[in-house]
Input
Amino acid sequence: MKTIKKIINDPQNVVPEAIDGLIAASHGTLKKIPGKNVVVKTRPTPNKVGIVIGGGSGHEPVAAGFIGENLADGAACGNVFASPTPDIILETIKAVNNGAGVLNLVLNYAGDNLNFEIGSEMAEAEGIAVRSVQIMDDVASAPASRITDRRGIAGYVFAIKVAGAASAMLGDFDEIERVTIKARDNIRSMGVAISAGSIPENGAPTFELGDDEIEIGMGIHGEPGVARRKLIPADQLVTEMMAIILADLPFQRGDEVCLLVNNLGATTLMELFIVNRRIRMILEEKGIGVHDTLVGNYCTSLEMAGFSISLMKLDAELKKYYDVPVTSPALTRR
Output
């Protein structure tokens, strides 16, 4: 099996060194909790429900890149493709707590759910009010009848944006949680891979695909998708993916959406723009309006080649929160 080369130092130190580099590029807006893979705002907002995000590293800029103005307040960073441990989650919750409580946005994987539950219980034992919302936007990972079994993927970005704005604008914990759940329930995503990423510790690919194969619906850690098949033209591939996504909510004529075309790590902007071209053609044919479009690296899988499509259906309330200006290393909207 071919070893994938990486520009790193000690493979055991990739996460803390990457965090240090992110903080150095943040213009003083981010800081690290000493001795922990925890990133938080340098200047917290008093009397606000804190928003904690996190998960395994290797998906940069998720999660720590989305800490900033009207976004998340802190990120618990695990090892590559591994959930942050309960003690890291506890430290993150404590660091962002300003007395109003903390809302965790958790990607829906067994390890993340378990460790965030334990970390939250530890925080509650210290008198902090904590709640969690699981993100489950990947339509390929389970049928609609088992929606709570679905994985969280790049639609996470939309959930963070809405939750961050709601926490900045609202003082009521119940309302912030409700708006976040509403955003989560209106997000649908699907990905496709054409080549694997790799773990820094061994450089080995996380899965194998033939030179002429793709896997539709593959997860961000290399989890199996819905179909493995020969490579097909971009327009045909996008048409098949969009048919599954649009039918799932379902999205209907007259709807308005936010669109994310996400690079899984090694796909060029040229390819992503070709994908976006076909998506917009399909949405126009379906009578679905696009309020905002994001194209680029948002939730990656190291150097996996491929992309994912995420749609969030809007109404007046969700649009209000989505349109709140944000500033962070990974996303700025004014």
About this structure: Residues 196 and 208 are 7 Å apart (CA to CA). The helical segments are 14-24, 86-96, 110-125, 156-169, 173-185, 234-248, 269-286, 316-322.
